[in-house]
Specification:
The chain is an alpha/beta fold and 253 residues long. It has 8 helices and 9 strands. α5 packs parallel to α8 and α7 runs parallel beside α8.
Length: 253
Amino acid sequence: MHQPPPASSPSFCVIIPMYNEEAGAEACVAAVCATLDKLPNRSALCAIDDGSRDRTGEILARLAAAHPKLSVATHPVNRGYGSALRTGISHAAQNGFDYALFMDSDLTNDPADIPRFLAEMRRGADVIKASRFAGGSGMQGVPFRRAVVSRLGNRVARLLFGVSVRDCTNGFRAVRVSLLARTNLRENGFAIIVEELYQLKFLARSYAEVPVILTSRRQGLRPTSFSYTPAIFWKYFRYALKARLGIRPEQEK
């Protein structure tokens, strides 16, 4: 008989937004659930179908019947990455999870790295960031220009944020749900990652990093919707500047 996890084992919910991911949804769910099934912690996977116009919703509904740990939330229309994350955070809070662990659906984040986060959860870290720039980490198959921009941008971001993480823009991360419940996140795009870090700067007491290898999206998947434009750069770095200037966000008490 399966024994319940000890009280000291933090619970966590993996949150994965999906938009038109019919080509990769099944592989993603299978890989994440296979990892979760091996862990003693109470865990779950919340996939958010963010208004997909392909068969993503249909596939997720079928998978939910086969994977007890999978819950599916659906947005009738596409509301954006940030909105999908907020839906996932609400799910994690309503179901009493200690941490929300955010991943992408394209498996450029390896589910095999999830146990690395658990070690830091047990140590009590408030914010745990996967890092492409820590010892034993890196990027494979990532275009050279993107890799250079990421490295330089994160050096600047780390200086401005003044927190002990080297990879400020990595979306593969885990955060205490109790802290996320006090944030006031508004971004609907990828900039929510740095908006979140900006708000957590005034809430979190401890940070940790886990080294990971970021890979590129495999062929056959929908191309990434992230783009390098001046508007995107400004959305990212305005939060780092606010952090540097000590401008506090509006937050729940």
